[in-house]
Every structure is written in C-alpha cells, then in structure tokens.
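Protein fold
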Amino acid sequence: MPKTIIDLHLIQTVPPSNLNRDDTGSPKSAVFGGVRRARVSSQAWKHAVREAFKKDLNPTELGTRTKRVVELLSVHLAEIVPDATDQEIQKYAEKAIAATGIKIKEPKNKTGAKESGYLLFLSNQQINALANLASEALLDQSDVDKRAAQGLVKGKNSLDIALFGRMVADVTDLNVDASCQVAHALSTHAVETEYDYFTAVDDVKAEDEDEDAGAGMIGTVEFNTATLYRFATIDVGELNHNLGDNQATVTAITAFIDAFVKSMPTGKQNTFANRTLPDVAIICVRDDRAISWVGAFEEPVVAGAQGGIVNQSSAKLVDYANDLASTYGSPPIACFTTGVGAAGETVAALGEALPFDETVDAVASLVSQRLSGPVS
C-alpha cells in the first residue's frame, strides 16, 4: 500500500475542570510561547480512549495491561481444566508465562500469584491462546513449549496493542512499535489556576439545634478553564503490519477516531461535569509524514474584537495549515472537517465539511482504497 498517515486536529473547550492532575492535585500545565498553558497528558487521553474501546468493541479485539499476568492466566486456565487443583493451575500458569521469556517474581506483599516486574500488555486472544497451551501441558504433566508460547504472544495483537504498542523489557522480540502517537493537549491561550473554596454540610449536625452552624468540612479544589488544541496521528502502514489484516486495520482506525474525538479523561468529573465535545475536528490523510499544527498557537490567542477563543483558534489553525502547505509544498491528500457554528464554517476551508459520522466513513473509505493499492 502507498504510505498513508492520518492526522487528527481538534479544538475543544472545557469549562472549569481538572482533567489531569499532577502529584499535588493541581491541573497539569506547561509553558509554551512564553506563557502558562493548560495541559492534558497524552497518557490521560489514551487511557480515556482505551476505556471507550471497552464500551464499543468486542473484548476479543482488545487487550489487558497488568502486572498480575499469572493471576489473569490462572482464571482462564481454571475454566479450561476445572478439575485441576488451585496449586496445579497456578503452577502451569507460571510455567506458561515463563515459557514466553517474561520474568515473573513474588509480589511485594508476598501473598498471591507471582507478577511481572512491570505492566504487561497482552491481547485477550493471546491470553486465551496461552491458557490453551498451558492446559495441554497440565493434562500431559509436561513442560510448556517455549517456541509455541513466544509465537502465541508475538501474534494475535489486539487493536489497542497495535495502536499504542508494547514494550517487553525481558524479551525485546515481543515488542510492538506503536502506530499511533497522541500529543499532550495544550490550551491555545494563557491560563491561570483558580481555586474553588467549598464547604460541606453535616446533615445530622445540621438537624441538631444545640450544634453551631459551622460546616462539616471545608476545602479547596484547583481548576482551570481552557480551549485545547489536541493532536494525534496514525501510521496506517505500521498499524496494518501490527494487525496483519486490512479489515482489522480499518476497524482500528474508525474505532480510534471515534474514541479519540468523543472521549474525555475522568479527572474530577463528578466535581465539574466537564463533558464537552470538540468544537472543531479536522482529519487529514497524508502520504508523507505526520504534521502537528500546534505552532499556530505559539503566540497565545486572546479573546477580543475578533471573537471568542474558539473562533480565533479555528482561524489561526486554518491560516497556519495553509502557510505550512504553501511553504513546504506538502498538502494532505484529503482533509475532512466537522465543526460547530462559525468555527465549523471557518475550518471548512481546509477540506470537505461533513457531519462527524460521515467524516469517519469518508476516512475509512479512503484508507480501504489505499490499503488495496500498490506500494509507493
């Protein structure tokens, strides 16, 4: 297939919120263009995407990330060999994991099954296949075949592993290069952290006539408000290599686009209910390389006579994208835009304006054509 890159550019406004906290509980931030910006880490949004996958995709298409791999494998093995003792189940689950070359050790609390020394990302199909291999060894009272075990973990990648990759420190042959990259979201403007001073009423105390009128609890919650620029990119060729199937590749792309656009990190959601959707979504298909347009906001947007933050951000994004294309001579093959109100009309200058579902379908159709085309 010809080289194919999918870039996603989003402008999204969130009201008072604390989407992604640092170790002190403050909203994460970064200095960009000489001013403090709101920031949401790539890890936070990738986690939100993976949680969205669980709601929309079949579990067989997904993976599980855990240190407790022996415990996870034991559950599946017990279902296959229900007559085996708990000791046999755990023993052969450990044998199966060890056969892959992944090192396991006693947990820190010294109780329970052995664990890997780091979070291990395995597809549910790989776990099931390992459980079947372990069950054969258990029934035969033999060792687990190492070559077969490693072969099972190398194949049958889930959509999320194929997108976000996997690193196995003990066995580098089991590593999977990520085909998707997600940038830290940054506000297009300067922000200041604010503080919500709150009091909570003790219901029982409030009904006691002899008690004072003081609150049951007093505290503060930090927050900010932001219009974020969000960027992600997918290398379709790498994704196809990781999955080994054209239809699975298209499924992964459509699932990611839908989840990335619609998902939201859950930090302090119950406090702020900051459940918004992007004001603007631009999806570009390229044949050269991924290109972020974050440079459009190196000079921070300031609300004023030219309109609000969203409209100005959208206009700056369009101007910057056109300037890059004319300067470097590398326009995308196609761009599809979805947007709300005036901002949507502004970004329509970059490509074909469609409702979001039709945008996803258009990208999927173009990718399908390119997957079946000749290698460039």
